[in-house]
Amino acid sequence: MEVVVVPEKVESIIESYKDKKELLISLLQDIQAECNYLPKEVLVEVSETLDIPLSHVFSVATFFKAFSLKPRGRHLITICVGTACHVRASQRLVDKLERDYDLRTGSTTEDLRFTLETVNCLGCCALGPVVVVDNKYESQINADKLDRVLKGYE
Amino acid sequence: MVEVLQKTLSSPSELENLRQSILQKRDPTRLCVTICAGTGCRASGAEAVIQAFKDEIEKREIQVNVELKETCCHGFCERGPIVVIRPKRIFYQRVKPKDIPEIISETVLNGNIIERLLYVDPATNEKITYEPDVPFYNRQTRNIFSANEEIDPTEIEDSIAIGGYSALSKVLFHMSPKEVISEIKKSGLRGRGGGGFPTGRKWDSCRDAKGATKYVICNADEGDPGAYMDRSLLEGNPHSILEGMIIGAYAIGSHQGYIYVRNEYPLAVRNAGIAIEQAMDYGLLGKDILGSGFDFTVSISRGGGAFVCGESSALMASLEGKIGEPRAKYTHMSEKGLWDRPSLLNNVKTWANVPLIINKGADWYSQIGTKGSKGTMIFSLVGKINNTGLVEVPMGITLREMIYDIGGGAPGGKRFKAVQTGGPSGGCIPEQYLDTPVDFDELTKLGSMMGSGGMIVMDEDTCMVDTANYFIAFLEGESCGKCVPCREGLKRMREILTDITKGKGKEGDIELLQRLATILQEGSLCALGTSAANPVLTTIRYFRDEYEAHISDKKCPSGVCVELIQYFIDSEKCEGCLRCLRACPQGAISGEKRKPHVIDQSKCIKCGACTEVCKFGAILTK
Fold first, then answer.
1. Are B2 and B151 in contact (CB under 8 A)?
2. How far is it, in rounded angstroms, from Cα B488 to Cα B494?
3. Domain segments of chain B: what residues?
4. Which of A108-117, B235-244, B557-566 has the highest mean pLDDT?
5. Which of A38, A134, B316, B510 pairs with B176 at a CA distance of 20 to 30 A?
């Protein structure tokens, strides 16, 4: 088996949560912000350092929608599929990415350029359909505009 | 800039003196450009507008004459980025960075109004210059929300200047915990998170619960799609939430609080964190608050994107670092909640009401609203509506006033069809009930509920079966899977609904859906399951004909369900502009310039790309 070393920065994040078992969700969020996903060996490290059963860490990591156990692309596309965006046809955007970019919800393009996620509401309901690319909010997007937006991300 | 305080505030008079000194330093007649920098306006480009103002002011060296204030959400998100120039409150909407030099040279320096940036009332076509005259605002009662427009949420002194923490000071030094609770009881305040449980009673039972350690929790896990007022309050006026929580903690005898906020709301997380730090620095939070001897601290916990965590027992499980599964509530959370200790959980809006009630009195507060529902409620009016945004209105206002007078009706002259209240577990209310007063009890009678205050307006182009399917698919995904009726029932309901939208519906499907709904209502563990069938039941109750059209005639009357419709081009309306032809990913559209185009049905995948680009409304469905 390949031995993977947990990066020092992640080590120190885990260390800072050492006596705070109850903040497991926050810890996983911080790790994901750093690593872009939750690598297996890091979850093992979390389990050992915080003295939480690995099964428990895994259950939390898979229960919440915000966590990914697979590496994600260079750019994260989040399409809001909340009710207000839905009635303004956000599903068409999801369909378009599948059709034109071979990108399904929760998956990553082969070249690791994009990962697509959907979210139930971003609270920008007045501006739907809303798409977020790498934390930049784009409002009132249609299929045509989406192409133009994505061109800016290589 | 906030000056660093020499020492923390250690008495009510020091707080009052600070307030007076802040007010003395401020000139109310001074020109102040306020820019909404809430999540909505940021998505519309507010950050570039703010930078343009900064650059322009620096270039012209007029800092002394004008103040620049970044506030959070004003509520009229549809029109963002919004710029309001005080003290006259000149209202500019959809402002772009290139407009800034003109705003500075014309309006700020010379007092001239720039006509093209004004809001045009779609009802009268009149241009409106001042913010209070905009119909969207002037029909509201903004008791809770108005402060959002006046303060920079990252500057505690802005909050103090408008009376922030005065209710806290009153409570700590002039009221006993019992008096606080009886005031809240007398006000008639009911929980704003959806259930509408009397807040005072909850506080009372938590105070009486046995145990030395108690917790106070703010539920900011606003998972309802289409509702974002909690985010806007926490982003825009975090100190009012903190003040409410400290008062609640004093009333029940708690020393530790949590704000559980969605991680999808990064700005709310940031601003709440800044507010906590500043309140600690000023001695308004932490040890010996204002010298009263009372201690209380607050931590922030970020959610992981699970809708069910808005449910109190699931939220507390998540706070403990576990997966967010609800538990049966034979014992109330107020007696045995977080780590099995008495826990007082209220919604963001509920907490925001508390300082207001303490300051103005329960008698004043209970005059607003209806017999059973007091005070104001903040709704997010979204979907197919002209004036999208957040509105605060007294309980008891009719749906019609809200949708037509404030919301301006459905855009594009389309006919209103239904309004969905209460989020995914609420119901769709049709046109004939638009004169119903909005309060907790009236909405329940219609088979819907108040919920967290989401109001999604649907017009004639919205298919009600598709809508029901959307909500059930949403809830299926969000069901935690712990109890069978919810986990399996929603899956089956979604399968039946999907079949109906694909033209594979059968006779008896409607009755089967109703039977499943009853099982969910009776057999589920938590409110997610028991209320999950509401969207199906209300759409069947009010729009049965649409279900029947899908099942018997294999038609979608609203032209939404792709398997049941065909796109075609109205040759009379088509101007032959080639736009749809270029947009079609399948090459299914043919035609020449300035001649009507045609769709080849065998190639069309019904993606709708042509509808989105057509400027003449020539693409129709049948």
1. no
2. 10
3. 30-86+90-129, 162-366, 376-459, 464-552, 566-621
4. B235-244
5. B316
In a domain, A39, yes or no: yes
Q: Which fold has domain B376-459?
A: Ubiquitin-like (UB roll) (3.10.20)
The answer to whether residues A146 and A98 belong to one domain is yes
pLDDT, average across residues B514-542: 93
pLDDT tens-digit series, residues B296-307: 999 999 988 888
Contact flag B263-A29 (C-beta cutoff 8 Å)? yes
Structure tokens at B164: 């922030």
B343-347: strand order across its sheet: B297-302, B256-261, B215-220, B343-347
Q: B50 and B70 in contact (C-beta within 8 Å)? A: yes
Range of the domain at A53: 8-63
Spell out which residues of chain B touch residue A106, defining contact as CB-CB under 8 Å.
Answer: none
pTM: 0.92
Residues of B in contact with A67 (CB under 8 A): 304
Per-residue pLDDT reduced to its tens digit, B443-480 = 999 988 888 899 999 999 899 999 999 999 999 998 98
Q: What is the CATH number of domain B162-366?
A: 3.40.50.11540
- Residues in chain B closer than 8 A to A87 (CB atoms): 383-384, 456, 458, 462, 467
- Distance between A3 CA and the closest CA of chain B, angstroms: 29
Residue A30, domain member (yes or no) = yes
Can you tell me the mean pLDDT for B248-259? Answer: 97
A94 and A46 in one domain? no
Taking alpha carbons only, the member of B183, B165, B315 closest to residue B251 is: B183
Shortest CA distance from B262: residue in chain A: A122
- Per the listing, tokens 């929603």 go with B490
ipTM for the whole complex: 0.88
Distance CA B397, CA B455 (A): 14
Is B566-621 a CATH 3.40.1280.10 domain?
no
Please tell me which of the candidates B39, B264, B380 has its beta carbon nearest to residue A119: B264
Instruction: Tell me the CATH number at A116.
Output: 3.40.30.10
What's the confidence (pLDDT) of residue B585?
86
Domain count, chain A: 2
